[in-house]
Amino acid sequence: MILDNQIADAFYVDMINRNLEKNTAKQYSKIVSRYLNMTGMKQFLKGAGYQKYKPFLTVFLEHTRAMKHSYSYTKTQFTAINNFFMYLIDEDFVDHNPVPQFRARYVRTYKAPEPAPKKQCTPAEIKLLVDTAPHLLWKTIILLYAVTGLRREELVSLNIGCIDFEKRIIHVPPHKKRTNCRVPVTDEVLGFILDYLEIRID
User: Fold this and answer.
1) What topology is assigned to 4-106 in CATH?
2) Is residue 166's pLDDT more than 60?
């Protein structure tokens, strides 16, 4: 029987002999000591396969999750244990490393689902929004959004001096996300703007 602290110390010496950076060797040694103490794995039987050691790895993984360790640190911990089993193989304590198979199955992240594509309103839907808007101001804003693609902060920054009614152009004040500051508009949009200006109270 090999005591946990003896095998962990021997593992640390082996890492130093392999020229691992000293801080890394210390970190890996601490992780392996915690792994051994937690799982109660006090001896290593030659010839034990994946199923023999999987329960120990499962216990350790459950602990890391209970402690809410980050995914990055969890990977580091299993890298340390992987190195430890490689050492055990080299020292003829075991002839199988269960970590790669376990890590590939249980220590991983999954890609977040692709966001749903943004839905663009059809002309009929835009007309319905304009027709049902309760105020001329909202009708004008909806059309401006739909026709020009202005952002909210750009729309708020507009004033009457920004609109060239003759050339049907809106001069958008400089904004860090816009390269084109001249936005064409339709006669319909200009008509709504003029109608709103007639009823606007300054």
Assistant:
1) DNA polymerase; domain 1 (1.10.150)
2) yes
